[in-house]
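Input:
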Amino acid sequence: MRIIIGQYLPADSWIHKLDPRAKLIALILLIATTFVIGNLYTMIGLLVFTIILVQSSKIPLSRFIKGIESLVFLLFFTVIFQMLFNKNGTLLFSTDLNLTWLNLGIIVILIVGYNLVKKMIKRRFIFFLATVALMVYSLTFDMGGLIKVFNISIYTDAVKFASFLVTRILILVSLSSLLTLTTKPTELNNGLESVLKPFKLIKVPTEEISMMISIALRFIPTLLDEANKIIKAQASRGVDFKEGTLRQKIVQIIALLIPMFIISFKRADDLANAMEARSYFPGKPRSKLVDFKFRFVDYAVLTFAIALIPSVILLAI
Amino acid sequence: MGIKFKNVNYKYPGIGESLFALTDVSLSIEPKGEFIAIVGHTGSGKSTLIQHMNALLIPNSGDIDVFGNIVKKGEKLTPIRKRVGMVFQFPEYQLFEETVEKDIMFGPLNFGLSKEEAREKAKDVIKVVGLDESYLSRSPFNLSGGEMRRVAIAGILAMEPEILVLDEPTVGLDPQGQKSIMDLFLSLHKKFNKTIILVTHNMDVVSEYANRVIVMKKSKLVFDGLPVDLFGDDELLQSYDLDIPKLMKIMRSINSEFNSKLNDTVFNLDDVVSELKKL
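Output:
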């Protein structure tokens, strides 16, 4: 599994020791800041700041890169869309692409080749980029049997805006990974509960919501385990989960989903009984195992995060 | 030849140096007439071992040959799964169809039988597991736990596997249900001469049913032989942390109480009676 969210990584850093409420509010403010910022250079400044934060969290950089890797296709298409459709600013680069029958053949071969070898390759995205680059490169040659000519032109604004968006996405992903990597799920949940407390005034059941979230987090590994067992049991009944036509795929998914539903309901029932046996009543006040106290660092972080938005707005003027 | 393991090693994928789940396991199992019990502590590699027999796990090194098919990455594994049927712990969780009949037909259909043939199979096997035909049209989710388990087992039997592998088939059933499920396997073994492989923690089951015992300890196969040889050797039992069957315990306390020297390696009531007559 490559899900980075919800993976706490213990380490001894000041970010780990931060009060979860302060961390949560600061994160929300920082995210809001990325949407206030209007120009590329301030954004890059914020990215540098984020990288410094990441470094000071003592969490290996590879964990963050893993989180970004799963988003790499989104980044890729952001860039492509900007390059193709943003035609403002001055012309930077222009070329003609010739789609010919021969080129089409080469592209088909490249796609087939990509699909054949992709299972053996670890850094799949780099391989994907290389394949796309090869496809585009092959298009610059006119090899006879012309079908259509495309004009590709890239403008300065496209480059600017693309890097702006990519920087913003990088900041968002790193910050949210930073939060989940440095905060235990239970702490995070308690923090969320406190942050949501004002909504209790308008009758939002915040405690129940946070209880639901923590139960959901708790059961992800358990249910994955169960899913694995069901997959194996159905595989020994002749289901080949790797192959099959669309029709067979649907049957395979049903053969997995229905048992999963039944197991989940059964587990939910057991859990509800266990909670009731320990006198859990929704809506009734509950005491906490750990009471969080704001320290100086927490106040400092909060003040800094709050001050960030107005200063960014001032910078823009 | 049935199942053959040669120097099989397996390690679960994981971060860093995870422990081996199977270390240098070699064994061979006949396609007919064996009733094998696999025993050992939790985490000793029993479940890992039997999942290799069904090609659900692929060994890291070593060879596994199941009815002439090699268990290897990239090979077709479904033929192996047809010939070696696997009943998991709590098999009732694999039920998913609307009717019992459809669920039993699921396996045979996957292995290429026609609908009519599969329907015939369902009619046959529902009787084999001790339920009647009226169950076929019922929903599998309205049955009792024991009945659900029988239906799930019927779903495996309908594939007509030559070897049946069972992972603690009696867990979670009441004593009566346990006995009748075990008797079902025994009758399959006797009637069709099928080889049955069974993972269990219950030494009474081993002594009563098995004609061969395999002991796993810390990912290694440490004993492979007759139940008499295992239970007759106290030192062996102690080193494997295994208990003796109840009947043997009774005979031992009789011996110590009456200062008698009866044979205490007895596995069934008839033997107990004939020993007691010597008193």
